[in-house]
């Protein structure tokens, strides 16, 4: 098992919000059609693929990790690829694409939006779930009033963005944090038309309650 796959599986195991919040949010924003074929951009071990397949939705997964892909392959066809490149897929090959907590790990997010636009057929959709840019900025975090427990938020370097390096074993995971305007403009520049947006908090019972803090951002675009 590689360090990256080990990190991802341990994240899923210790954070139940992936299964209870993130995956349902992706399904909600995607609003998949039963007769359509979707591309899972960065499918990992296939959690979202399994959720959609259980609802009768057809999905092709792609990811770089050779350890996680065989797990995802138990649900449906998968392809090993190095995102954001999708040269292995022809123009208009799928009816829709989605990326769940993937864009943050791509240095060239602009190419991801362009490539997704190329491989999705006209009238198809792109759905994305990311950590909310406003509250995932470098140096941001909760501030708790010691008197009444009110949760406030330190903005950090939101407007300038930047990278966050998270140590994982002997290596690092990089998060590329961008202002929300940058994310939306990259999609628009690639030809996507914004159709629907959802902001959602995460109820972390037993810790600092942040259910009113928008921790996740989800958007669906259509290829006109």
Notes on the protein architecture:
The protein is an alpha/beta fold and about 220 residues long. Helices cover about 25% and strands about 30% of the residues. The protein has 6 helices and 11 strands. A 7-stranded mixed β-sheet has the order 3-2-1-4-5-11-10, with helices on both faces. A two-stranded antiparallel sheet has the order 6-7. The chain has a two-stranded antiparallel sheet with strand order 8-9. Strand 6 and strand 7 form a beta hairpin. Helix 5 runs parallel beside helix 6. The chain is globular, with a radius of gyration of 17 Å.
Describe the main β-sheet briefly: 7 strands, mixed
Q: SSE order in H/E notation?
A: HHEHEHEEHEEEEEHEE
Lateral strand order in the biggest sheet: 3-2-1-4-5-11-10
Instruction: Provide a count of the helices.
Output: 6
Determine the strand fraction and express it as a percent band: 25-35%
Outline the fold blueprint:
Layout (H helix, E strand, L loop, with lengths): L2 H12 L2 H14 L6 E5 L5 H8 L3 E6 L5 H4 L5 E3 L13 E7 L8 H11 E12 L9 E4 L6 E4 L7 E7 L2 E7 L2 H10 L3 E8 L15 E7 L2
Helix pairs in contact: 2-3, 5-6
């Amino acid at each position: 098992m590689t360090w990256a796959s080990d990190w991802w599986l341990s994240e899923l195991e210790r954070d139940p919000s992936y299964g209870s919040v993130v995956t349902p949010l992706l399904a909600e924003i995607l609003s998949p059609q039963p007769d359509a074929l979707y591309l899972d951009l960065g499918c990992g071990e296939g959690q979202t693929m399994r959720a959609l397949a259980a609802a009768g939705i057809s999905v092709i997964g792609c990811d770089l990790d050779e350890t996680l892909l065989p797990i995802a392959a138990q649900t449906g066809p998968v392809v090993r690829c190095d995102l954001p490149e999708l040269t292995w897929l022809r123009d208009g090959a799928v009816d829709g694409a989605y990326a769940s907590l993937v864009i943050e790990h791509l240095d060239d997010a602009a190419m991801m939006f362009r490539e997704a636009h190329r491989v999705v057929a006209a009238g198809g959709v792109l759905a994305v779930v990311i950590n909310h840019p406003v509250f995932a900025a470098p140096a941001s975090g909760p501030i708790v009033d010691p008197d009444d427990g009110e949760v406030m938020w330190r903005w950090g370097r939101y407007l300038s963005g930047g990278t966050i390096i998270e140590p994982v074993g002997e290596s690092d995971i990089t998060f590329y944090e961008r202002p929300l305007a940058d994310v939306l403009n990259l999609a628009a520049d690639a030809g996507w038309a914004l159709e629907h947006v959802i902001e959602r908090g995460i109820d972390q019972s037993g810790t600092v309650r942040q259910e009113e803090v928008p921790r996740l951002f989800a958007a669906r675009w259509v290829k006109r």
